[in-house]
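To the wet lab folks,

You asked to see what we're planning to order before we commit. Fair enough. Below is the target structure as tokens, and below that is the sequence we designed to fit it. If anything looks off to you, flag it before the synthesis order goes out.
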């Protein structure tokens, strides 16, 4: 039996990116600090992975001020939601159909 890995999206291979997409797929949005704390990432690490996902068109960042403090929130785009759903389905199919 040949296993089809065509729909596994390389953009989500990193556990950090997989985590970011997972958080954003079940929440309307999430701020930088929340994602950083949930995933145990450094500021630079989260910024780097978020930038990659933004460049792919999978998430958007929205910068604002809360009081006098800058706040960055992330949201998943429709393209990101679709790509992530396809990726998860491909992973599920792989796990269900893999030879033992």
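Sequence we intend to order:
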């Amino acid at each position: 039996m040949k296993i089809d890995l065509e729909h596994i999206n390389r953009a989500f291979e990193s556990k950090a990116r997989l985590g970011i997409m997972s958080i954003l797929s079940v929440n309307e949005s999430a701020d930088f600090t929340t994602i950083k704390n949930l995933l145990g990432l450094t500021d630079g690490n989260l910024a780097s992975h978020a930038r990659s996902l933004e460049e792919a068109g999978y998430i958007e960042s929205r910068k604002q001020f809360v009081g006098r403090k800058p706040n960055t929130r992330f949201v998943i785009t429709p393209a990101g939601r679709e790509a992530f759903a396809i990726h998860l389905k491909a992973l599920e199919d792989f796990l269900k159909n893999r030879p033992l």
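Structural context that might help your review: The first strand starts at residue 30 and ends at 31. The CA atoms of residues 16 and 40 lie 9 Å apart.

Thanks,
Computational group
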